[in-house]
Amino acid sequence: MRTFRTLDKKSDRTAFITQKFEETFGGPPTFVASAPGRVNLIGEHTDYNDGYVFPVAIDKYLNVAARKRSDRHVTLYALDVGDSWEFCLDTLSAIPPQAPAWSHYLIGVASLLQASGREIAGIDAVITGDVPIGAGLSSSAALSVAATFAFLTAGSEPETGESEAEKKDLAALCQRVEHEFAGVKCGIMDQTISLLGQENHALFLDCRSLEYEHVPLNLTEHAIAICNTKIKRELAASEYNKRRAECEKGVDILSQWIPGISSLRDIALTDFKKHEEELPALTQKRCRYVIEENARVLDAVSVLKGRSQSTSDNTNESLTQFGNLMNASHNGLRDDYEVSCKELDLLTDIARSTSGVIGSRMTGAGFGGCTVSIVHQDALEMFQTRITMEYHKQTGIEPEIYLCNVSDGAQVFRLF
Ligand code: GLA
User: Fold this and answer.
1) Would you say the C-alpha torsion 135, 139, 141, 144 has a positive or negative sign?
2) Atom of ligand 1 nearest to the CA of 45
3) What would the mean pLDDT of 210-230 be, rounded to a whole number?
4) What is the pTM assigned to this prediction?
5) Which one, of 111, 240, 265, 109, lies nearest residue 187 by Cα?
C-alpha cells in the first residue's frame, strides 16, 4: 500500500533543492520560492462561469531555488524531468518550437511580468516539487506562481506578493500564462488558492468579484484524503475548452429569456427550469450542472461555517451534509457535465461504500486525476486498504493516496 504524507517545514522544502542547486550551478541559491498545489473541496468548473469555489492549498509544493544573475539570461534545470532550458529576457517574443512544455510556464511568466512593467532579473534556477504532475492538483498553477515569485524576488520587487491586492493581480497574470502559453482557458481558482491559501482553512472565493473568505475547517476528527487514479488527463485541455464554450452558448441563448445575465452565475435554478427547454440537450445538461454546483458551494460553506461556530453536537450532522453535497457534486460532474471517467467513479464508489467516509468526489478538471474524500480518522486505515485493493483489483493500477495537511499559500524562503 503506498500512502504519501508530506512534511511542511522550511527545511523540507529547501535542503534537498539547495543541494541540487549547488551540484548544478556550483554555488548556493539565495532563495527558494515555493507554491502549493490545491485540492478543491467543492465548486468544480464554476470558476470560469463567474461562480463560487471552495479549495484548500495542500502541503505539496512546487519549489524553485534561484540565484540572481548579473545579465538577462535565465538558465533552468527541471530536476523531476531531468531537463534543462535557457532563454534571454530580452528575446521573449515567441516560444521556440523545441522548448519543452514545462518551460512554457516560465517563459510565459517572465514575458507577462515584463509586459506588466515589473522589473525582473535573469536567474539560475533548479525546479523540483512533489505536486504530482497532471493529476488535477494544480501542478502547473503552482509552477507559474513559484516562477512568478522567483523572478520578482530576483528583480527589483523583493517584497513581492505581500499585499492581498498584489496577490490577486499575480493570480490573474498566472491565469493568463495558462491561456496564452499553454492553451487552456482555465478559470482563476488554482492560481488564487496557490497564492492565498491559509493553513487549516478553505478559501471561499467568489470568482466574479474575487472577494474571498478563509473558512476554518476544524477537521480534528477527520482527514482529507486524495486518491490518484494515475490516469493522465489527455483529453483535458480540449474537452475543458469545449465545456467552457457550451456554458457560454447556454448564457447566450438564455439571455433572450432572462434579461441582464452575463454568466451562469446569474441564473437561479428556478429561472433555469422555466427556460431550460430552449437549450439543446447537451447545453442544457452542462448549464444545469453549473447552476446546481454554485448553489451547492453556498450550502456547503454555510454548513461548514455553522459547524465551526457551533458548540453543540450537531457538528457531525453538518459534516454529513457537507459530505452529501460533495457526493452530489460528483454525480453532477459524472452525469451532466460528463468530465469524470470510470476510474474516478470507481474510486468514489469504493470510498462511499467504506464506513467512516463522509463524502467523496472527483476534484479538478476531470478525465482522470484525483478524488478528494473526507474520512474519519478511525476509518483511515480501512479506507486506504480498501481503495488500494479494490482499485487495483478492478483496474490493475496501484493508486496513490495522499493524506494532506491544509497549507499556507506561496512563500519565499531567503537563504542568504
Ligand atoms: C482546472 C482549472 C480551474 C478549474 C478546474 C475545474 O483546474 O485550471 O480553473 O476550472 O479545472 O474546477
Assistant:
1) negative
2) 12
3) 96
4) 0.95
5) 240
